[in-house]
Amino acid sequence: MHTDPVSYVRNAIRSVPGWPKPGVTFRDITPVLQDPQSFRVLVDLFVYRYMRQRLDLVVGIDARGFILGSVLAYELNLGFVPVRKKGKLPYQTLAEDYTLEYGNATVEMHADAVKPGQRVLLIDDLIATGGTMLAAAKLLQRLGANVVEAAAIIDLPELGGSTSLKATGLPVFSVCSFSESDA
After folding, report:
1. Residue 100's pLDDT is what?
2. Is-contact 81 111, C-beta < 8 A?
3. What is the arrangement of strands in the sheet containing 79-85, beginning at the earlier edge strand?
4. What distance in Å separates the CA atoms of residue 72 and residue 75, rounded to the nearest whole number?
5. Catalytic residue among 10, 27, 64, 84
6. pLDDT tens per residue, range 52-79
7. What is the C-alpha to C-alpha distance for residues 150 and 146, in angstroms, rounded to an integer?
8. Catalytic option among 40, 49, 54, 101
9. In the annotation, is 10 catalytic?
10. Domains within the chain, CATH numbers bracketed
11. How many other CB atoms are there within 10 angstroms of residue 87's CB atom?
12. Which of 16, 37, 44, 56 suits a disulfide with 118, CB 3.0-4.6 Å?
């Protein structure tokens, strides 16, 4: 039986109830990455979406955004830029603080990672509260980049991240979404 590509990828995502804490269901992309067919379908969904857009770079967020972002950059014949957790980059950096449900965090990128006017795709595995992606977008904008879209494999709309990102004017794309009631 044929399944559409989005359902195929969504069905490969593992739900882990009670992790990292009771009441939370973790959406694990590891099974998608482990299976060559589902990984290819996932990558192809993004390649087909962006192959005709004029992009200069793919920017991936630490750490799972590196997996998809680097493959996508390769497939689109673009450069790849990492946005890292604080203290992981060896050269001159710019930093952006953001708030998490349980505290604060900081992301950084090299000060020379993008040039003013470059069109970039920002990518991560998941949009929850949107804090990390919003901080990364702010870093890119401080360097003069044009963030064409914020993209993710999974959106958790009940946590409000995609709504917060869209409220800033940033276009958002996700392959699939899960609510907390989804098994």
Report:
1. 76
2. no
3. 93-100, 103-110, 79-85, 57-61, 119-127, 146-155, 172-177
4. 5
5. 64
6. 999 999 999 999 999 999 999 999 999 9
7. 11
8. 101
9. no
10. 52-177 (3.40.50.2020)
11. 9
12. 56
Q: Is 101 a catalytic residue?
A: yes
Q: What is the pLDDT of residues 4-54, one digit of tens each?
A: 999 999 999 999 999 888 888 999 999 999 999 999 999 999 999 999 999
Output the CA–CA distances (angstroms, integers) from residue 41 to 112, 126, 132, in the order listed. 33, 17, 26
- Write the burial class of residue 109 (CB in 10 Å: 0-12 exposed, 13-18 middle, 19+ buried): buried
Amino acid at 22: P
Helix, strand, or coil here: 100? strand
| pLDDT, tens digit (0-9, with 9 covering 90-100), for 66-119 | 999 999 999 999 999 999 999 999 999 999 999 876 779 999 999 999 999 999
